[in-house]
Amino acid sequence: MTDSDSLLGVELDSGEILLKFVQTAAETDGALHVQQARYVPHSAPPPYHRHPQQDERFIILEGELQFLLGGQERRVRAGEAIDVPKGTFHRAHNPGDVPALVTWETRPALRSAEFFFDMHRAAAGRARPGLADAAAILMEYRDEFELAKPPPLVQRIVFGCLAPFGQRAVGAHRKR
User: Fold this and answer.
1) Furthest-apart CA pair in the chain: how many Å?
2) In angstroms, rounded to a whole number, what is the distance separating the alpha carbons of residues 97 and 130?
3) Which residues contact 63 (CB under 8 A, 6 or more apart)?
4) Phi, psi angles (nearest 5°) of residue 146
5) Distance of alpha carbon 39 from alpha carbon 128, whole angstroms
6) Segment 38-93, tens digit of pLDDT
7) SS3 labels along 107-120
């Protein structure tokens, strides 16, 4: 059994977004990761980021999401979809008064499930993980996720220095 096998059907609730893994790399031979996401009304946006090697597609089933995509604002409503090409900086949140239900696809899957699981576990009920844990996870999953700021070279230096103090956060999906 691979790490991804054990994550199929997992639900992660941050208080802002409830994620449920519908398909992981194991079921799609690495081609696709699919999760269903339920955003609470007026959810906080995540950090502005990009996926260096992955394309994303968000299909809005209920409610709406507000995207900042490549510096441009765009509101996407139920019945609509939006594609986020690899390498494009973006973030999304629910600006509405009702929950938003979204099918969220990532191609190729890479280690998306493991990334979300490790970030969730490291946050331990907080909005975000502590700095050392986040640094360790962001170093480990740099193919899946990269922050817009600070610049990539600065991230590698700073996160590289902090990562050893947060190593317990990496691989949390294997310790559940």
Assistant:
1) 45
2) 30
3) 39, 77, 78, 94, 96, 98, 99, 100, 101
4) -145, 130
5) 16
6) 999 999 999 999 999 999 999 999 999 999 999 999 999 999 999 999 999 999 99
7) ECCCCHHHHHHHHH
- What is the C-alpha to C-alpha distance for residues 18 and 115, in angstroms, rounded to an integer? 15
Residue 131's SS3 state is helix
Architecture of domain 5-107: Sandwich (2.60)
Reduce the DSSP state of residue 6 to 3 states and report it.
Answer: helix
Parse the chain into domains and list their residue ranges.
5-107, 112-171
- One-letter identity of residue 57: R
132 beta partners = none
Judge whether 158 and 125 are in contact, CB under 8 Å. no
